[in-house]
Please model this.
Amino acid sequence: MIPIIDLQEEYRQIKLKIQLVIEKILENSSFILGQECEKFEKEFADYLGIRYGIAVNSGSDALFLALRALGIKNGDEVITVPNTFISTVDAISRNNGTPVFVDIDPNSYCINPKLIEEKITNKTRAIIPVHLYGHPAEMDEIIKIAKKHKLFVVEDCAQAAGAEFKGKKVGGFGDIGCFSFYPTKNIGAYGDGGMMVTNNSNTAKLLRMLRNYGSAKKYHYQIIGINSRLDEIQAAILRIKLRYLDEWNLQRQEIASAYNKLLNKTTNVPNGNYIKHAYYLYTIKHKDRDKLQKYLQNEGIETMIHYPIPVHLQESYSYLGYRRGSLPRAEKVSKQVLSLPMHPFLTSKEVQRIANLVNNFSA
Ligand SMILES: *Cc1c(COP(=O)(O)O)cnc(C)c1O
Model:
């Protein structure tokens, strides 16, 4: 059996270091908003080349609080894509905003900048590009449109830690960048975790209050916030993993190149010239996707579908009134995408075997 991701192997590689820091935190018994969290916020922001990092409980809370800090409220429209994890869109509705979906560029699976302006109204406040699978969205064009129409940009970087667009790491192009440390992500905690990054000191202050009951000073609550923090054990684990992120991403890129070489051209995944893909997922397209998935499963290859139902066709968002056919490109790829095993410890033999099976099935 070849699993889609191998967290046990990752743990074996760093086991002693992890055990040591967990032991240390248990002995110190400082568990919330301590040294480890503060250090990790700084180290993660430095890694990205961004001024401020504010850690939270999840990527979902990062997106939710980012929109809250930017003042998204009742009836405000926020533009995003339908082919994403549900929480990108929930962040908008949890702030009582209205999600507005823009179709994707079939070459990158990311938001198609050419289709954004026709969806802008006088209620539009922000755009959330999603760097899907680790492939950066077209940030130049998106920022240009946002500036022209005075819109905020919140990057959903949950799948793209370490990815670059034109030599610059994603997260710092817009007003706030949001990361997830869900265990399977390129840098994952041993539980939930997330981070918001920004270059704006006022925004950083506000985010810091929002994640801690709206408080900047103990027993004083200036605004209404929530409890969403990254605990010390997770922060310490993430500090260790951050030191491996570039190396592991490089291994992902090498595995992706091997797949690209071996697989029939029709199934290859997008990778533009001026981007550095983080390859959170290696997701191919196939017209007989469901049959291919069953075939691979019978051969002992685990695969997943990201995502089988676009958000605009989910029951929870039926109130928005989108119908089948309203976002044709996103709908089409949802029927064709299949994520193959991808993690830094996949061997070339395994890649060879998976690619052969996919090619045989297609032949
Ligand atoms: C994982 C993910 C999130 C949410 O992160 P959590 O930490 O699981 O809350 C948001 N957006 C995308 C695109 C994701 O992949």
